[in-house]
Design brief:
The protein is an alpha/beta fold. It contains nine helices and 15 strands. Bound molecules: magnesium ion (MG).
Length: 260
């Protein structure tokens, strides 16, 4: 089993790892403070592109951890940086929330509306989705415009049940016109990892990804040369680990068992 002693940066997923909704998991905030006290860096990495880093900053502070804005990483931020680096001077149509659009605007990206042509369609977790928005995205994609998604998750868990997430909207678009994104940014994919290493000025060998979902959090660690730590406080059970081809480096009952 790999050790966490040499890890300098711990990346944490949120729901199922640190909190459930608005409630921190038992001991999780103390663990974050313990890691920080031992000189470890801590960041929070979420695929949820419906909210901004400011929303998450507030949320984590409300959970009881004194986070700084630099400690928050969202797939929306990584998507905005990817577009500014790899699709410069392109106009963007965002099938996403105002928060995601603001993330793009922060990078000086030109955003078009439902009545305008655009070079690239960006699909996020659009909790403000309307038929008009969806139809406009499909019109652009049918014209052959570039297509990028913020993350691949099919569902976002909520206290009321699973919410259709970006992957589900992606499937709807594929049924409509056969188009799939040329790039999907978020966990477990490399563009998100590149953003993290850049943002935190660190090499993957010194980073651990801690999360409760095998196909996003753990695969993110494995695919991008980080140490992967599965916690059993969320959606994954020991039986699921045994059955899966995705094998975490370390399996812990909760974040409280992380050794430093
Ligand atoms: Mg989770």
């Amino acid at each position: 089993m790999k050790s966490t002693k040499d890890i300098e940066l711990f990346l944490f997923d949120l729901d199922g790892t640190i909190n459930m909704g608005d409630t921190p998991l038992e001991g999780a905030i103390d663990t974050l403070n313990r890691l920080t006290a031992h000189g470890k860096k801590v960041c929070f990495v979420t695929n949820n592109s419906s909210k901004s880093k400011y929303d998450y900053h507030k949320k984590i502070r409300n959970l009881g951890y004194d986070a700084k804005i630099e400690q928050i990483i969202t797939s929306g931020m990584a998507t905005a940086q990817f577009l500014s680096r790899h699709r410069p001077y392109k106009s963007i149509y965002v099938l996403g929330t105002d928060e995601l659009k603001r993330e793009m605007s922060d990078y000086g990206i030109e955003i078009k509306d439902e009545n305008q042509d655009a070079d690239v369609v960006v699909l996020g977790f659009d909790t403000s989705l309307t038929y008009d928005k969806l139809f406009h995205a499909c019109i652009l994609l049918e014209k052959g415009k570039d297509y990028i998604a913020t993350h691949p998750d099919f569902v976002c868990p909520s206290e009321y049940g699973n919410m259709p997430d970006t992957g589900a909207i992606m499937a709807l678009i594929e049924k409509t016109n056969g188009r799939t994104p040329s790039v999907v940014i978020g966990k477990p994919n490399a563009p998100m990892a590149d953003f993290v290493f850049d943002h935190c000025h660190i090499e993957p060998e010194k980073v651990a990804m801690v999360g409760d979902r095998l196909y996003t959090d753990i695969l993110f660690g494995i695919n991008n040369k980080m140490t992967s730590i599965l916690v059993l406080t969320g959606e994954t059970t020991v039986e699921m680990v045994h059955k899966s081809h995705i094998k975490p480096d370390i399996v812990l009952d909760s974040v409280n068992d992380i050794e430093v």
